[in-house]
Amino acid sequence: xxxxxxxxxxxxxxxxxxxxxxxxxxxxxxxxxxxxxxxxxxxxxxxxxxxxxxxxxxxxxxxxxxxxxxxxxxxxxxxxxxxxxxxxx
Length: 89
Hints:
It is a single chain. By secondary structure, this protein is of the alpha+beta class. It contains four helices and three strands. It has a three-stranded antiparallel β-sheet with strand order 1-3-2. A hairpin with a 2-residue loop joins strand 2 (61-66) and strand 3 (69-77). The longest helix has 17 residues, at 3-19.
């Protein structure tokens, strides 16, 4: 993945999680399918997933299990992620 595409996906994901408090991964993928340009819908989902995993590894976002369903989870932005979004703006 090219650096500029990674950076724009990172900013997009952080922005969506910050804007939507109880965002789930399927919701994020649905937003991405409509909002982001890409040749292939399948590749778009794959790219979003890979960047999401990297943001978790860098402690910019975290996952929190839903209280009523242990198989699903919310995406939450961390303090470090909030600082990152302020720098990007």
